[in-house]
Specification:
Distance between the termini: 139 Å
Oligomer: single chain
Structural class: alpha+beta
Shape: rod-shaped
Order of helices and strands: EEHHEEEHEEEEEEEE
Radius of gyration: 55 Å
Number of strands: 13
Largest sheet: 5 strands, mixed
Strand content: 25-35%
Helix content: 25-40%
Number of helices: 3
Length: 235
């Protein structure tokens, strides 16, 4: 128990006494500054602790709702898409190749449109050297094999005049033969004879080829589209 002096009479009085026993003056207790500061400090500490705990809970909530991207699955999906795309491209390519392999083979007498030209093979026959020479008396060349003569009608379907496209013979081994160098009134001069729009030109195309093979006549679109082609079976 601590003793303090009475502010009125100066006698010593207990710090817990409410009144001075000598003069009866009420003793005013002084509040402890240290105690008050300590209480404030405790409250401040508790406030900081509460704020910190609340912030930690919010961070935990954010972490719990955030999903880490699955990069492995994304890469797998991209690989699958790439494979599917490549498969489709390969399918289209294979179908195109199948169409090329399954080219339409026409017959003698049919009219075939190829690019800006329509063709009709009227007939074909093996002929003698003397008959070929009759087309042009100056022509003295004998056949190396045999002369295959083809009667051909070509019509210009374009809006302007065009030169007759060249044609070729193709055998079963895909050997390609050029027309023989035969000239005459009845013989078509391929690449030089000019045909006006909507008009036709009929004549002969002669090939010097072996007789013991199967042949197709290869017709093309001429002009800027020579890659367009069709075949006529001659056997």
């Amino acid at each position: 128990m601590a003793m303090i002096k009475c502010p009125e009479c100066g006698n010593e009085v207990s710090n817990k006494a409410e009144k001075c026993p000598s003069c009866g003056v009420t003793i005013k207790k002084k509040s402890s500054c240290l105690g008050n500061c300590g209480s404030i400090g405790c409250l401040f500490f508790l406030l900081l602790f509460f704020i910190g705990a609340l912030g930690a809970n919010r961070n935990n909530d954010r972490r719990s709702t955030y999903t880490t991207p699955n990069y492995t699955n994304t890469k797998k999906e991209e690989q699958v898409k790439t494979i599917k795309t490549e498969t489709k491209v390969n399918e289209v390519s294979s179908k195109t190749d199948e169409k090329k392999d399954k080219e339409t083979i026409y017959k003698i007498g049919q009219t075939i449109k190829v690019g800006n030209w329509s063709y009709t093979v009227n007939k074909k026959e093996w002929v003698s050297d003397s008959l070929v020479k009759s087309y042009n008396p100056i022509f003295n060349q004998k056949s190396e094999y045999s002369f295959l003569q083809i009667s051909l009608t070509a019509k210009n379907e374009d809006t302007s005049s065009n030169f007759l496209p060249n044609v070729h013979l193709v055998d079963e081994k895909n050997n390609v033969f050029e027309p023989a160098n035969v000239h005459g009134e009845k013989v078509l001069v391929l690449g030089l004879d000019e045909v006006n729009p909507s008009l036709s030109k009929k004549g002969l195309v002669i090939f010097d080829v072996p007789k013991d093979r199967k042949y197709r006549l290869k017709l093309n679109g001429g002009g800027l589209i020579p890659l367009l082609k069709e075949y006529v079976e001659l056997n």
